[in-house]
Amino acid sequence: MASPVPISLPNGPRGRLTIPVLAFGGILMAVMQTVVVPLLPDLPRLTGASPGAVSWTVTATLLSGAVLTPVLGRAGDMYGKRRVLTGALALMTVGSVMCALSSDIGVLITARALQGAAASVVPLSISILRDELPPERRGSAVALMSSTVGIGAALGLPLAALVVQYADWHTMFWLTSALGAVGVTAVWWAVEESPVREPGRFDVLGALGLAAGLVCLLLAVSQGGQWGWTSPRITGLFAGAAVVLALWWWHQLRAVSPLVDLRLAVRPRVGLSHLAAVLTGFAFYANSLVTAQLVQAPKATGYGLQLSIVATGLCLLPGGVTMLLLSPVSARISAARGPRITLALGAAVIACGYALRIADSRDLWMIVLGATVVATGTTLAYSALPTLILRAVPAGQTASANGVNVLMRTIGQAVSSAAVAAVLVHHSSPVAGVPVPTLHGYLLAFAMAGAVALAACAAALSIPGDAASAGTRRAEDQARADRDQAAAGT
Questions:
Q1: Over the range 50-83, which residues count as b (16 or more CB within 10 Å of their CB) and which as e?
Q2: What's the distance, CA 410 to chain centroid?
Q3: pLDDT at position 342, please?
Q4: I need a labelling partner for 196 at 20 to 30 A (CA). Which of 8, 236, 384, 473 fits?
Q5: Whole-prediction pTM value?
Q6: Predicted pLDDT at 463
């Protein structure tokens, strides 16, 4: 196992731009994931495809991101984090170019699957920050990197809606292609390759097994509402996922260089952090899903505001700005009280946000306030999760361990999407002949998400002491001092 060797950021503009460049990559990844949302209602007409086929432009990104995040995280630990990060951004950019050049639904789905590789950008970047930053700068940088997911999502929706409303829809993908090319170039120029590596042979069988199991699981979760939860396809997918993942678990425990170190993952400090990630992902995602539908509901429902997609995106924008502004605050709380407390506090704030949503979901200002409070809690929770992982795993496994943690969030989001959809479909009434969710259905969705947030708070408080061991701190500090001294000598 490689020992942690933190290095100093290079002097000059490259060193000063490392953190902003990595944050730009994280924001760009989140933008890429959300830009297709405003297109979904019109894509059947624009591509000549069925609504079911069009939905795969979202599902393909979800599946490929879930599969590739832990795989690319492990590859980064073994072969170089900057190298793999650059490759992930390049795949994302290629996918965007393909979307810009074609209106064929098959090409679009393939391109969106390529863009799913960008889901690994945040865990790889966080691992780079651990390797390259001194401890006193690491917390705020990791918090900023974690918040880029929410910032990019909040920016992507109104940006895409504006482009779709006033220009040809391909223009949106040409714009993201240009931004992707800038991101690839900037990472290659400004980010130093990490010297921390985890030696061994890449577990190809483990990667294939994880991919097969996750595809079966997430496909069943995401398509259960459309195909029927008791249909042969869905039950077969769940059964296949159980068998494949059980075999994968058996293989991982016996592999010399496993894709995921399960013995490390089931330790309380790591395992409970992963559980909290699943629950927080569920609670966070319900906010975006429900808010967008609620404010666009027809006024004939008695509660709907009938806002446009552009106005809907602007309702979520304050939450993104809040995430950007609060990332340094979350780092200070973690430094003073520990990331376990920050995570618990964030989950509790998310629950408070849903309490506001239940109290009043008719007035626009209350809807925006409640959504922003949820975003505030998400900032605290998402900034604490990678810090917990960094303190609990060896330096040579930070990218893969954070990749698994991001995977847990993705699973939480997929389950949240299915659960919210089931609640809203069950509590619907016809408006002008079209089934529309009732206000009671939305309130039940808020209550469900708030309860899950409280469960995340309990899981966070159950995590054992999260301070890094004194031995690990001394080793990192000594390695950094030795490297700085060697650099000064040359």
A1: eeebbbbbbbbbbbbbbbbbbbbbbbbbbebbbe
A2: 6
A3: 95
A4: 384
A5: 0.84
A6: 94
- 384 three-state secondary structure: helix
What's the longest Cα–Cα distance across the chain? 78
In sequence order, what are the residues at sequence separation of 6 or more whose Cβ sits closer than 8 angstroms to the Cβ of residue 309?
A: 38, 157, 161, 164, 165, 296
- Of 114, 141, 120, which is closest to residue 130 (Cα–Cα)? 141
**Alpha carbon distance, N-terminus to C-terminus of the chain:** 28
Question: Which DSSP symbol is given to 319?
Answer: H
The Cα–Cα gap between 227 and 374 comes to 31
Residue 1 confidence (pLDDT): 43
The residues facing 428 across adjacent strands are 437
pLDDT for res 12: 53
**430 in helix, strand or coil?**
strand
Q: Please give the pLDDT value at position 135.
A: 79
Whether the CB-CB separation of 158 and 310 falls below 8 Å is answered with yes
Assigned token pair, 362: 């008719």
Per-residue model confidence (pLDDT) at position 42: 81
Region label for 80, one of left (φ > 0), alpha (ψ between -120 and 50) or beta (otherwise): left
Six token digits for residue 360: 């009043």
Give the DSSP letter string of 121-169: HHHHHHHHHHHHS-HHHHHHHHHHHHHHHHHHHHHHHHHHHHHHHHS-H
In angstroms, rounded to a whole number, what is the distance separating the alpha carbons of residues 359 and 388? 33
Contacts 24+ apart (CB under 8 A), 465-470: 465/338, 465/340, 466/269, 466/338, 466/339, 466/340, 466/388, 466/391, 466/392, 467/338, 467/391, 468/391
Strands (E), 304-378: none
Distance in angstroms (rounded) separating the CA atoms of residues 187 and 239: 42
User: Quick one: pLDDT at residue 451?
Assistant: 97
Q: For the chain, what is the radius of gyration of the CA atoms?
A: 22
Single-letter residue type at 113: A
Question: One-letter amino acid identity for 62?
Answer: L
Contact 49, 43 (CB under 8 A): yes
Burial class (CB in 10 A: 0-12, 13-18, 19+), 436: middle
Instruction: For residues 185 and 195, give the distance between their C-alpha atoms in angstroms, rounded to a whole number.
Output: 21
pLDDT for position 369:
94
Can you read off the two tokens belonging to residue 474? 């001394």
- Residues 151 and 144: their CA atoms lie apart, in Å, by 10
The backbone region for 315, taken as left when phi is positive above 0, alpha when psi lies in -120 to 50, beta otherwise, is alpha
Q: Are 62 and 285 in contact (CB under 8 A)?
A: no
Quick one: which H or E segment has residue 291?
helix 268-296
Closest to 31 (Cα-Cα) out of 174, 177, 155: 155
C-beta separation of 424 from 441 below 8 A: yes
